[in-house]
Amino acid sequence: MVTAINISRLGGGAATLLLATTMLSGLAHAQTSETAPANADPAVTSDAPPATPVAATPATSAASPASQEAAPVVPQRTIRSLRVEGSQRIEPETVLSYTKLRVGQPYSNETLDQALKDVLASDLLATAEIAGVETGDIIIRIQENPIINRVILEGNKRLKNDKILPEIKLAPRQIFTRTAVRADVARIVELYRRQGRFAAVVEPKQVALDQNRVDVVFEITEGPKSKVRQINIIGNELFSDDDLREQMATKQARWFRFFSSNTSYDQDRLAYDQQKLRQFYLTEGYADFRVISAVAELTPDKEDFIITYVVEEGPRYKFGEVTVESAIRDFNGEALAKAVPVKEGEWFNAQLVEDSVDQLSETAGLFGYAAADITPDYIPDREALTMGIAFSIGEANRTYVERIDITGNTQTQDKVIRRELRIAEGDAFNSFLVRRSQDRINSLGYFQDKFEIEQQEGSSPDRVVLLANVEERSTGELSLSAGFSSLERFIIQASIRQRNFRGKGQDAQVSVNYSTYSKSIEASFTEPYLFDKNIALGGTLFRRDYNSFNFIGQDRNTTYQQVSTGGQLSTGIPLTEYWTVSGRYRLSQDNVSLDEATFFTNGVCDPLKAGRYLCEAIGDRLTSLVGTSLIYDSLNSRLRPSAGQRVVVGTDFAGLGGDVRYVRATFDADKYWNVGSGFIFSLGAEGGYIHSLEESRGPGIDKVRIVDRFYLGEPQFRGFDIRGVGPRVQRIPFTQDADGNTILVTDRDQIIDDALGGRAYYLAKAELEIPLGAGAQELGLRPSVFVQAGALFGITEPRRTVDFEQATDATGNLLFNVDGSPTLLALSTPVNTTDGLPLYVNEYTSDAGAELTRLTTCASGYADTYGGTCSGTADNDRAVNTTQPFFERFVGNSAKPRITVGIGVNWNSPFGPLRIDLAKDIISVEGDDPKLFTFNVGTAF
């Protein structure tokens, strides 16, 4: 649009020249105005019309000085009025505020162009144009950016909406802008690149709706995950490519790594791998090693990366002279130099230098210098290939604890944490006591792992503030465990426990165990600091029902029932930081019984049915027991220790009243080592012996009752079933083979097997916990390998239940089977009533004509009641119980070690902590009951 002006006073040539330059200026200005909206993203579809060009003002040409002299001065134009058209949501004043146009001010093409640029730069408008340039009545016509109705993602399968939408800026009810669209496209592409998908393509589209609204659609083509196809290393001569790749977090994509996330390309991981390579070479003595370049190339199909490292190894160094210079008084540099791990003449190892700095810092901290500045200076001798180390301990003031701040504990009371601190406000700083306090707080189990007490500068250089910033964890435990035993079949155990009851550090627990043959319920409560004194007091109430069992044929039969009801009081008093003495008193009533219908004959326990050892255990006993234990505990954590040891020596005396008298001694010790690289090695040993103070109860009867003895097996001895190790009596029935020969049964489920326990036992174990990668650690997987050895023994061999008579032929000769074993006769035992009257078998015919038998006390005839008047003259046979021959043997009473090896894993699964063990017995004794697989599971709240 060109403005007409009066040119009648100008000459013809000048007029022609002025007209030409005016037209050129207007044309150029029109091009500028048309290209302004072209900054929009071409990928975003829009139906908005192009902006109308602003009117141009004639300008004089600079082509000739003569024409400049002839050109008249153009009068200035003034804005007479100013308004905005097309606004719907945006106030006109808001649009005008982005410009410098004001009524009464002069204007030119340049000021109008700048006004258009300013309003479009606000991102509020889709288009803008200016009219009324000729008259000064300026009109800014606008089209507002639409409002976003919805943001739609299409094609995203690997990254769900909840992962993408929070990361982008566009959202419903916001203003649509092309700038935001471009930024969100770049953000989505970046999210896919972090997932290793470098071929991802995002195409944005908009769908126009009524009322100036749009739906924004991001069409996503995810593409395949870009793997690391190959890792090439150039320049390495001393170590193979495989050795160096082993040090890297990034791994080459191979079929056996389909679960690994480290096979995808990650730029941050690339930088980390360079550091890992350098650390490896520095620990091997190559102090001049450097990575010259690390290049990651994407293959043309964008599916894989090829990473190439160029390295320079350099020569290998040994440690030269090692010195320690200390500016702290009373620190002997020569003595400290001898104590550090770095030794002259050994191969250079940067890790040993770091360990030496830590050791010197710890030593300074023991003497109260919390802020000691320890700097290692490296002195290389490139001709002798040695690296001298000069440790410098800077001057420091003795530091005192100004205050101790505890934060993060929302449930746990401050005093519960402070009573575990071994350093107080105002004390001289001591790094050992700080570390010990840290270990004790970790051992509570109330807070997240790897808790550390931080040190901050105090109000002066000789003051330090200790900050215990804890992160509480769930201290409630709901444990559910299930197992399968060849003896007890399914076993279910459940317990609920709160280890930090009411935030006071109190321990409250209720547990229930249930299986077909054992049931128990137990409730306990412990106050660790009675009346805020360092004295623990706890109590337990329990009821335990245990049904022992065996097999007769294919049928499982309960043997004896043991019911224990009672309670225990216990207390603990610390003697020193590591030593504690504890005491306990237990009162329990034990009742051992047998099913009379099954195991009694004539009202008396029948050894043929139950075994002498079970008949001897029947009865009620009251046990009054007092005991004490001496405990040494220096573990850095009671939940998952990695260093330290724990030793418990205990004695118990039963006989302070009651019916049972014995002395029992026990021992339990564990020691842990952090052997580096995440490996934790542990050794454990336990044992016990019980000695009866009662008189002998007869030949073949052990003075320690069966319910007071030790038992060994699952869970403490992995690789064996519950009570699967130690003395036992097996009653093995006879059967016939295919040829009719009498042989012993070999199926263990058909053997009557009674574990008798022992008076002495020992058990030792060695276990190595194996670290896994970061991904497995996040899942909470902690595998281990272990070996265990132990035995249970020491009871008197019980008397044989019966000696079966050997069969003879008609001439009195002994009969034998084909294999030479004797043929035994069944044993018949007469049956009486509970009143001692003999019973007979009476044969009779029913009304339906069936031949039946019934028991009676009549030797002849029959009486309706036992002891009643007999009617009839037919003689009756004596009623007897027939016991088929069996072979009884006493096995397992040996101190010979049983040895098992196995692997196990602890897993913090989504449904609770899970423990799985696979153990194999490699040395066992006849009669032991091995078990290959066990597991249990629980949860926390």
What does this molecule look like?
This protein is of the alpha+beta class and 941 residues long. The protein has 16 helices and 46 strands. The strands form 12 sheets. A 16-stranded antiparallel beta barrel has the order 18-19-20-21-22-23-24-27-28-29-30-34-35-44-45-46. Strands 31, 32, 33 and 43 form a 4-stranded antiparallel sheet that branches. A 3-stranded mixed sheet has the order 2-5-4. A hairpin with an 8-residue loop joins strand 39 (860-862) and strand 40. The longest helix has 24 residues, at 12-35. The chain is elongated and about 155 Å long. Residues 1-71 have low confidence and may be disordered.
Number of strands: 46
Mean of pLDDT: 81
Note the main sheet.
Answer: 16 strands, antiparallel, barrel
Indicate the overall shape: elongated
Secondary structure category: alpha+beta
**Helical element count?**
16
Q: Give me the oligomer status.
A: single chain
**Widest sheet: strand ordering:** 18-19-20-21-22-23-24-27-28-29-30-34-35-44-45-46
- Regions with little confidence, pLDDT below 50 for 5+ residues: 1-71
Nearest-angstrom radius of gyration? 46 Å
Distance between the termini: 77 Å
- Residue share in helices? 10-25%
Strand content: 35-45%
Descriptive keywords:
41% strand, alpha+beta, 941 residues, 16-stranded antiparallel barrel, four-stranded antiparallel beta sheet, 46 strands
